Fold Phage minor capsid protein.
Amino acid sequence: MKEKKPIKLNDEQLMLDASQVADIYHQLTLELFDQVIDRIKERGSASLDDNPYIWQLEKMNEMGLLNEDNVKLISDRSGIAEEQLRHVIQNEGYKIYKDTKQQLLEATGGGGFAGNSIIQTNLAAYVNQAMGDIDNLINTTLPMSVRKVYQSIVQESVAKVVTGLTTSDKAISDTVMKWAKKGFYGFTDSQGKHWKADTYARQVIKSTAWRVYREVRMAPAEELGIDTFYYHKKATAREMCAPLQHQIVTTGVARTEKGERILALSDYGYGYAWGCQGINCTHEMTPYIPGANYKPDLPDELRDLTPEQAIENANAQAKQRALERSIRQSKEFLHVAEKLGDQELIDKYKSKVRIQQGAMRDYLKQHPFLHRDYAREKYYDDPYTKAKKEVRLREEQKKARELATKRAELDKAVKNGKIVSVSGVTVGHTPPGKAGEPNSVVQHNATNGDVLGRTYYDDRGYKVKDIHFTNHKQPDKHPYGKKGEHVHDFVFDDDGKFISRTTRELTNNEREENLDILWRY
């Protein structure tokens, strides 16, 4: 009898990484608003107090400069965000698929893992669809929204000063704060709901990540004819998920198999927004084979948790999330107040943050199962810089792997005697001539030591080919290889008269015998 194996639970790294990508878009909107404030506060030749309409004209004339700054910032941030999202979905997503498939193969004795190009294609398609939605919003709608906010702040500030309602500083502070609370408009959905640009981007990323996560977990099971899963248990659960926690569930019909009771997901609203695995449900399902796997042990705090308590806890956690959002938002408004230099607003939001943090401490004392996550309360943690470093590190690691592979190929070629034997070297601008030692190879070096090419002579001593390792700074005329490396084939008659010269790519054999130069390419 086969020994049962525990199921291996994948962590939530994919979702955490995707959330950090969404944070980049939120950071982008905060930085765009900072640029708006900087332009508004920048001193010009006219004063808002003394010449409000001249001040307005100057500020409107600066809108082009603001737009240039915005386009550059958006390009920098969205470029890194897209690269990160592609890595998270296509690389991390496929890794989860591969690990899950391998675990199932081990449990069923089904052999070794084979790649799945369909899954890889699907993952790429998910990213393309998500980025298509986000790019249109971020690159087109967002810059227009920033200009509109800037224009509104200028016009409303002037109106308040002209009518004598307030001082210029107060007019700017109040108007800027009003638009800080509104945020940058993204779009209006079919229900008439107005979405902020960064909120919509976060929703697209979150829904894409969950869709991917579920597919890469369930696809291996479907491929192996498995329709049973372990439903993870958490301290919090919505009404349709609570009864399923720490149970074995199926996408098929309810049944008992190998002595284990299996619940049907369809009985709990599966496939509907309000049901299990519906909108905003973060419950994981891990493929499970009755008779081959056993459920994981639960920690003490979850072991005796009832479905009713899980539902109650979910409501309590939702209130904690609301408190976290309010603290984070107050910190964002405090940042705006500090940018404005408005002491009254600074004091107001500092006090508000302290009160909200006190409310959070009291709330957590009442609900000890909750823990405080300070990261959720931060103004922001500069996710862009962190992501940029990760992208650079991946690029360096990729180059190092490629270099190691090429070095190994070179070592193998040297060991097998494949590298061509060079009998002479010429240095300088002039390459080796048409005649040389029969069956020899002469190397052509630049004065700085770089190898420019190699000339091959036939058994008559006439040049038969030149292998050049550069494109001669003419990429349009030498569109070959990785860096323009190419071959010129020569034909001379027995009297040494030139007949023809043609240009082509290097053959695999020519590449191998010149690997001592080409391995770096």
Summary: The longest strand covers residues 451-457.
